[in-house]
Amino acid sequence: MRVSQRQVVLALLTISAVGAIISLIYQVAVPDQNISLVGIVVVVVVLVALLFAYWRGWSVARHITLIFITLLVGMTTNGVYLTEQFTTSAFLPPVFAMIIGGPLWIAGSALVLLVMLIVRAGGQGIYVAPLSILIYIMSVGGMLLARMVTDTAQRDAQESADSARQTLVRTEAQAHELSQKAAELATRNEEQQRLLELVTTLETQTVSLADGVLLAPVVGHLDSRRAEALTRRLLNEVSMQDTRMVIIDIAGVPTVDTAVAHAILRTIQAVRLLGCEVTITGISASVATTMTQLGISMVGVRTARTPQEVISDDLLKPLRN
User: Fold this and answer.
1) Which one of 3.30.750.24, 3.40.50.360, 3.40.630.30, 2.60.120.430 gives the CATH number of domain 207-320?
2) C-alpha distance from residue 120 to each of 69, 73, 74, 82, 171 (Å)
3) Residue 280 dihedral angles phi and psi, to the nearest 5°
4) Cβ neighbours of residue 122 under 8 Å, at least 6 residues apart?
5) pLDDT tens for residues 108-121?
6) Residue 36, by phi and psi: left (phi above 0), alpha (psi -120 to 50) or beta?
7) What's the alpha-carbon Rg for the chain, to the nearest Å?
8) What is the pLDDT of residues 238-291, one digit of tens each?
9) The whole model's pTM is what?
């Protein structure tokens, strides 16, 4: 069970007030001539008032309680406990300080109490004995060290908690940023996919130039995806129509490399398997030079400069026969 510092202080002040009330009841039931009833009533009133004040949020009440307890012990220690025996009440203020104060309050309350007892004893007695002072200092020093260790552990825990919170905030911010970027990327991918679908729908439309002759103009870079789409479209058009010749015009292809040339050759071979003649048109001087330098052979492939030449009587004459 986790207990806060405020709860601990409230419990300690409550114990002090209840102890004072019990002492008052005991004094009323069994009167002691050496103890003043009025004094006990004053102590009860003060402790209860300080408890109520701290409970209502006045944090200074805990330090006033510590000062009051220190003065109370210093002023009420009498008899043999002032000169001959070391009173255990001398440890009460440092214990209170260890719980509700801090290292300085522990040392200060112990020192003030010791000075009060020495002064009241006239500079003689048990409180000036070296052994007694040594034992008291060692006891108070242990309390002091214990409180310092506790404070250090609390600071370390607080720093760790703050660091963890900061790390969590940064992680959440990064996660939110990544989520936004992922959403933006998904949106761009969807837009790109729609554009690709639109391009696929619109690109490489076949045109009927004459009876049994289809023209397939290719515009832009011809990659593997477009080559497959072109092959599928041509095979579908050729199989659905009575097509005897397909003209593939590559005048709109800016550059031709080995991959593009092989894609065109595969398309030609696929169309030829359906018994349809294929003619390539639109080969520019730069494209022809590049294909020659790459060693790409177009042997067996009918070529022409323009689709108009293909549909001339000279080229179509073998097909009519």
Assistant:
1) 3.30.750.24
2) 17, 12, 9, 8, 63
3) -100, 130
4) none
5) 999 999 999 999 88
6) beta
7) 51
8) 888 878 888 888 888 777 778 878 888 888 888 888 888 888 888 888 888 888
9) 0.53
